[in-house]
Description:
Layout: H1 3-16, E1 30-35, E2 41-47, E3 58-64, H2 82-90, E4 97-101, H3 127-142, E5 145-155, H4 157-168, E6 175-179, E7 196-201, H5 210-221, E8 227-232, H6 240-245, H7 247-254
Parallel strand pairs: 3-4, 3-5, 5-6, 6-7, 7-8
Antiparallel strand pairs: 1-2, 2-4
Amino acid sequence: MTSRQACLAGAAAALFSSGAFAGDPASLMTAKTFTSSEGLALPYRIYVPAASDATGKVPAVLFLHGAGERGTNNVAQMLHCIPQLMRYVVEGGHPAVVVVPQCPTGMQWVDAPWGALSHVMSEKPSKPMQAVIEMFETEIAAAPVDRSRLYVSGISMGGYGTWDVLQRFPEKFAAGMPICGGGDTNLAARLVNIPIHVVHGEKDSAVPVTRSRSMVEAIKTAGGRKITYLERAGEGHGVWTPTYNDVANLDWLFSHALRGCYGQDK
């Protein structure tokens, strides 16, 4: 583990230690590695709770981290948002399967420049995203997951990843929450029936705020009525912290379900 990775891991543990139970989010989750059909080894963490309802099924959340947490230590990706999410799941009475992959160093969830004002979604996912798609399907097939309640969220690089996976599988996810990311506005029509809560900082100097503005506008123009947008006035890139600190956003995410395994949101 590098000194930066050790610092990130320590910060994650410190953030989580304020919860009602001891430990850090990584200690609550099983560390695994998935090898994709393309031969890429993808580290990830997964939390699987005991079944809680009459059907024995629980929701599943896929979280995609930002660029600063890339690597192979299978810990750094727990730094942002996962402490709040795990507290919500474990202590808040909202049991769910939580899956947190780690993108390898030098790679991206989406092969697009973060500072560009637009990009076109590639026909094939990036190698890390392909690994995520395969891994997530494998895990939700094995766990007690309610397939009508699959959620995806991500920050920065992971915000791009969130848009990407929603555009590739618009029938699969009940809701999404991309934070300071960007998608392909040409594919906005695919997203008109998905509840999406978009957050971006007005003064973001890493990912242009127009990336979120343009996606929201394109979806609305295509007929989407289930998209909401919060632009945090005067704030920069790290708007994921106040977003995940506000439990109302997680309540919103968990409130959605598809009609049956696939279809329109209830």
